[in-house]
Amino acid sequence: MPKVAYPPPRIDPVGVVNTDRPIQITQLLFDCDNTLVLSEELAFEACAELSNEMLEKHNIAKRYSGPELMTTFVGQNFRGVVTGLQQKHDFKLSDSEVDEYVSRELGKVIETLEAKAEPCVGVMPVLEELDKSKKYGMAVVSSSALSRVQASVKKVGQDKFFPKDHIFSAATSLPVPTTKPDPAIYLHACKVIGKDPGECVAVEDSRSGTLSAVRAGIPTIGYVGSYGDVIKQNEMAEVLKEAGAKVMMDDWSQFMDCMAQIEAA
Q1: For a 10 Å CB count at each end of the chain, is N or C smaller?
Q2: Pairing status of strand 17-18 against strand 10-11
Q3: What is the pLDDT of residues 83-97, one digit of tens each?
């Protein structure tokens, strides 16, 4: 695949990438969990079981439900959750212990997703239309492990929309594993695909994901349709706006209008 050199994103005085560039949008970068696939609740149930195990092992009384853990760490992969738990509850795991928990969590989550994952409401007709039009390239950029992302999109029939080498994982695709809000995975995806960040639009449902894309210099659509009730959707819309999302949508039927707003800016 040819690689195109592009100038580094412009950084403002507080370290946030400036995305105001008169460049044509040619590439779409989709988060996976609860953006393309309804997977976060399923995954965090498995995360909670292992998180509580490690807390019990360190004589910490706190226990998490899946929904509580998701609210606290939404948008992060399990390695990021483990790091956050250690910081929040003041305990320490060895690198080998972290690797073991991450491996166990991945197996549990993939098994669950292969059985129960469903596409986000309304996303399939949009992907079909985008695939048919060929106006934009499409890729998946996730914090989750690559095998988990691949299992998710395959289970719901979305793998046909994304080239195999255009599915990216902050946990797997980088030389050093990381998680959003680190912009590294978005910058890596742009480099591999051969696009300037300003040529892309990201779609994200979490604060950490939105920050990751924005810090990479990518205009971002905030999606809140997977948050259920209107009150929570409105709360998350404000969170994503503060994180730098340029436009918001609560239903995939609004996607083309959101793209038009970004392209007209």
Answers
A1: N
A2: antiparallel
A3: 999 999 999 999 999
